[in-house]
Amino acid sequence: MKAVIFAGGRGTRLSEETGLVPKPLVSVDHQPILFHIMANYSRFGVTEFVILTGYKGEEIKKYFDDFWTFSEEITFDLSQSHKISVNRKLPPWKVTVIDTGLETQTGGRLGYLKGRIDEPFFLTYGDGVSDVDLSALLDLHHKSEALVTLTAVQPKGRFGALVVNNNLVSSFIEKPSGDKSWINGGYFVVEPEALNYIKGAQDTWEESVLQPLAKIKKLGAYKHHGCWYPVDTIRDLYNLREAVARKEFPWL
Fold first, then answer.
1. Looking at the domain covering 2-74+81-153+180-245, what would its CATH class be?
2. pLDDT by residue (tens digit) across 158-212?
3. pLDDT at 87 over 60
4. Is the pLDDT of residue 151 over 80?
């Protein structure tokens, strides 16, 4: 199966980092967010990727064109004007990068794949890192009649909580999960037929596809209880960097 990754947004809420690179290339412990997303897919045997770009998409092409430079120990022999590669440890990834336009919305970006993909595929946003069990997600999808199955998550609360009894604080709870509501975690399995709901470049994935499918009971949900780090703001980025430093993810 292929994994398709949205990587075309401007990332304006993370403008501190996205002035020079698109958000998927923002660095997290010497590797970009995009690398960590792909690493989770790779551990489940998914090695073929389609990346849908827009804003600064050329930087994503440059990243993969020079991928080995960033992934290996290298010896530079300056007297011979060349470099010698050692300790080669490249992942077996095949990556297709498609420029889908600067102003195109998420649905419109995915619309570029109409007629180009004829089997179920994984889909995710290029700014959220998770250790979601892709095998379990796929298994649930196959057992259903859904055209799309999303990963549902319960985000952590932003603040710590207090336990108060009789006007006295009895304990502190470190950032409990929000209000226990499930939200879209951004990891999907998609049937090619779902792309028929996309009509134009300004269609969004959420409004043009997910909402109509929910109304006809063709949108499944897999509940994920593990790590999930969306990156919308600089605070989110710091949280992800701390999680990587703690080696919370199985590919680290």
1. alpha beta
2. 666 667 787 666 677 666 665 678 999 999 999 999 999 999 999 999 999 999 9
3. no
4. yes
Instruction: Kindly write down the DSSP assignment for every residue of 141-195, as one continuous string.
Output: HHHS--SEEEEEE-PBPSS-EEEEETTEEEEEESS-BSSS--EEEEEEEE-GGGG
At 119, list the tokens: 């089997």
- Give yes or no for a contact between 175 and 163, defined as CB atoms under 8 angstroms apart: no
Can you say whether residue 250 is alpha, beta or left, with left for phi > 0 and alpha for psi between -120 and 50 degrees? alpha
| C-alpha to C-alpha distance for 25 and 20, rounded to whole angstroms | 10
DSSP 232: S
Backbone phi, psi, residue 142, to 5°: -65, -30
pTM, full prediction: 0.89
DSSP labels, 55-82 = TTHHHHHHHHHTHHHHHSEEEEEGGGTE
